[in-house]
Write a structure and sequence with these properties.
Length: about 475
Amino acid sequence: MLDKLREECAIIGTSLKCEEAAGVVYNGLLALQHRGQEGAGIALSYNQSIVLEKDVGLVNEVLTEKVLAKLPKAKTAIGHARYSTTGSNTIKNVQPFLTEYLTGRIATAHNGNITNAKQVRSMLEKEGLDFSATSDSEVISSLIAFNIISCKNLLKGVIEASKILCGAFSLVLMTGDKKLVAVRDPHGFRPLCIGKNEYGIAVASESCALDSCGFDFVRDVIPGEVIIIENGEIIHSSVELVAKKQGLCIFEYVYFARPDSVIDNLSVYEARFNMGRMLAKEHPIDADVVCGVPDSGLEAAMGYAYESGLPLVSGFVKNRYIGRSFIYPSQLQREHAVKIKLNPLRANIEGKSIVLVDDSIVRGTTSAKIISSLRSINAKQVHMRISSPPFRHTCHFGTDIDNEQNLIANQISIEEICKRIGADSLGFISVEGLKEACNKCSLPFCTGCFNNDYGTDCVEMSKFQLEE
């Protein structure tokens, strides 16, 4: 995928027996940078207070060497890398959020989307609470603080607040007195996992962050589970939140997660490889070679090649040094922008019939540009294969899928999409095929963006979402 759907937020928290929490969180955020590039932040529990550093930008742009050097030595910290699903991209919406109240303070980092955020905010405003941001994550932090005060207990306050929230939320929360709390919503929409080493505990969106920071993967946080960690040890763990139906966002396997992560007992790499195998079974074609669109189409291309017996080749050279501020001064440069990031490899493409594997088509514009770039170096044929079903519905739980009216699969048929993007043939994996490819996952799936099967009444609350 290339600038079609955007990554989800990343969260990480750690409680250690040594004062190295800042370094752990920083390294973890670097490993999770693929989940959000719009803002980053870190909060540390120090001397009965909370020190916070955050800003818009990439992790290494916000948490520079100079910033890291001035952070205090701490045993407990949380961090966040942001992609905005609600709220504009300004520093006031960057996480973690710090909430102060009469008897203490908390910092909160959130991945997901709260569908009743506007309603909850209105309720809290009537209780006299003020808000400075437009993010649903600020609402979560304030709601938890409000309930901690009401319950006069950290655990009870977190539980009661979580029962009010509707939608997707994986949370890490830190108190001024060095307690770390992890919560996963009862549906299990977004991933969250736990790691351990001799120095303490870490909780992160993906296991790749635990690996990068030297923690051994222990397990996934159970949907509905609330965990409290202190001094590098889990001091409480219980499943407190219940939903009628669970459902992990299946697009985590298609695109969001890094291929070296394991989510709910399933390797992301294995899932994508199996998607490619299923594509070859559902949509075989006589061609010369198979190639994937970097990066999230690569593993599915491997699976397609394996199942079909066709040779796998590198189809593109990816420029990994294009910054976020890259501009296109002229219309001509804008038209050729795809080649600046992905330049087709003539030696493997020219004169050949290509099976081109990518993870999704949303509006079709990027796919058309990629295929056009292959035609420009004389590809004989381009047969496109997509490792997700056609997008037909909005996601209410954090995936930034365009308005349903702008989704190309809602406008025209698959045959017409094929013609519009300039492919010789086009095949999408079926919903059933995608589920089969991911059948080793320990949770059922939310596939609402493909077939309107969200499996929860939280969708009805989406009209209460905060306005940007």
